[in-house]
Amino acid sequence: MDKEIKREALRQYFKYFTGWFIVTGIFLLIGIGALIFTVAVRNSSRNNSSAPKERVYDYANVLTDEEEQELSDYIAQNQKKAKVDIVVVTVDQEMGLDDPTWEYNMMNYADNFYDENRFGWNCQVGDGALLLDNWYEDERGSQKGCWLSTSGKMENIIGSYEEGRVFDAMDRYIDSNPFLAYCAAVEMLGRYGEGGAGTDSVELGSFCCLFFLPFVVALIYVLVHLRQVKAKDTTTAGTYVVNGTLALRSKSDEFIRKNVVSHRIESSGGSSGGGNHGGGSHGHHTSSGGHSHGGGGRRR
C-alpha cells in the first residue's frame, strides 16, 4: 500500500513539473541558438570596409620600412584570430609635462585617431584597440610614454590589470628595440581579443546555466517537498482502519505550537555608485566624437 501511494505521489509530482520541463526545453533551444549565433559572429570575416587598411603609423620614425611591414603582417595575423582591429601609432610631439595634462592629451589623441579613421572589426568605431606611443622629450624633461585606447568588446575585456600587462610586455624592449616592444604588445592584445579574458568560458557557462539551471531548480524543489511530506507522514494507509472499518479517533487536529519571530529590515539611506574604473589614467569614458572608449597609459 505504501509503495502504491509513493508511486502515485511521484506521478503527481512529475505531472506537476511538466511546465518546468517545457520551460527547460525553451531555455535549451534559446541557449543553443545564442551559442550558434555567437560562434558564427566570432568566426565571421571583418565587417568594416570604411577604415583604412593601414595598421602602423610610425610618425616618430622609430621603425625601419622592413620593421613596419613585418609589424603590419604580425598585426594582420593577430587581428584575424582575435576578430579585433589593432593599430599602432608612434608620435614625437608635446603632450604635457604634468601627469594630468599628459594623460588627457594622450587619451584624446588616441581616441580621436581611432574615431576619425573609423577603426573596428565588426563596425565603424567597433571592436579594437589602438596603441599610441609618444617619443617626445626636450630640455624640460621627458614626455615619453604610451596610451592604449580600447573600443567595443576590447573596452569590456581590457581593464587596468590587462593594460598593465600590455605595458609590461612593451617595457622589456621599448628602449632597446621598439619593433619587438610593439610586437609584444600586439601579441598581448591578440590574446585578450581571442580569449576574451574569459569570453569563451562565459559563453560556455551561460550555455550550461541555460541547460542545467531549470533542471537543478526543479530537482531541488521536488526533493525538498518530498522530504517535507515524509517528515509530516505520521500516518499510514492503515492508521484509521480497525478490523477492516474506518475509525476516526478525533474529529479535530490539535494546534500544538506556533513560533513567531520578527526581524527588522534595515534600509540603506544611500546607494553605492559606480564610476570610471580607477578614473584618471584609465576607465570607461566618452570621446569628443561621442563614442565610448576604455583605456589607460604609462609614462616612461
Question: How would the blueprint of this fold be written?
Answer:
Elements: H1 2-16, H2 18-42, E1 56-58, H3 65-82, E2 85-91, H4 99-116, E3 128-134, E4 137-138, E5 141-142, E6 145-151, H5 153-157, H6 160-171, H7 178-195, H8 199-232, E7 241-242, E8 245-246, E9 285-286, E10 292-299
Parallel strand pairs: 1-2, 2-3
Antiparallel strand pairs: 3-6, 4-5, 6-10, 7-8, 9-10
Helix pairs in contact: 2-8, 3-7, 6-7
Which structural traits does this protein have?
Diaminopimelate Epimerase, Chain A, domain 1, alpha+beta, two-stranded antiparallel ribbon, single chain, 6-stranded mixed β-sheet, 300 residues, 8 helices, 10 strands
How many H/I helices? 8
Q: Show unreliable segments.
A: 197-203, 260-281
Please tally the β strands and state the result. 10
Residue-averaged pLDDT, rounded? Answer: 79
Q: Please identify the structural class as seen in this structure.
A: alpha+beta
Oligomer description:
single chain
CATH architectural category of one domain = Roll
